[in-house]
Amino acid sequence: MNCPFCGHEDTQVKDSRSTDDGAAIRRRRVCAACTQRFTTIERVQLRELVVTKMDGRRVPFDRDKLARSIRIALRKRPVEEERQERIVNGLVRQLEASGEAEISSARIGELAMDALHSIDGVAYVRFASVYRDFREVEAFSKLLTDMRPGEEAELPLPPVKRGKDKG
């Protein structure tokens, strides 16, 4: 493993431990040349997945991109980081277990929306609004209407900010 700070090839593992869900191993390393410390994460990868984009391009699956999207949707929501990691791990396992080497970006988006829908209504709407790229207010309104009854109530309105001299 090359040092990310100086590029030296000789790094030593100082500590290894499993993540909470057991899906990865975190390793603390130290560089023999510059003595900087850094962490690496090792995960099991069952197969190489290729994502087919809407425009026909084929790109390697990027777990980190999926994780970023899930985290952005769940930002400032009451969902702890470990649970977010379990969501991403579950989605990746589903994709790998599908038996398909090529998966459409639409399929990945639908799986992510399903996972978010069952966890947090606000995160679901956030993800869907970007994923579905709404062009009209009516389409966004239909998404909210199509949610299960009572879910609209979970979508809080932002607080009204008032000036100092406004009561």
TrEMBL record:
Zn finger (unnamed) start-end: 3-34
Role description: Negatively regulates transcription of bacterial ribonucleotide reductase nrd genes and operons by binding to NrdR-boxes.
Cofactor or coenzyme needed: Zn(2+)
InterPro entries referenced in this protein's UniProt entry, alphabetically: ATP-cone_dom, NrdR-like_N, RNR_NrdR-like
The family this protein is said to belong to: Belongs to the NrdR family.
Cofactor note: Binds 1 zinc ion.
Protein name per Swiss-Prot or TrEMBL: Transcriptional repressor NrdR
Gene name of this polypeptide: nrdR
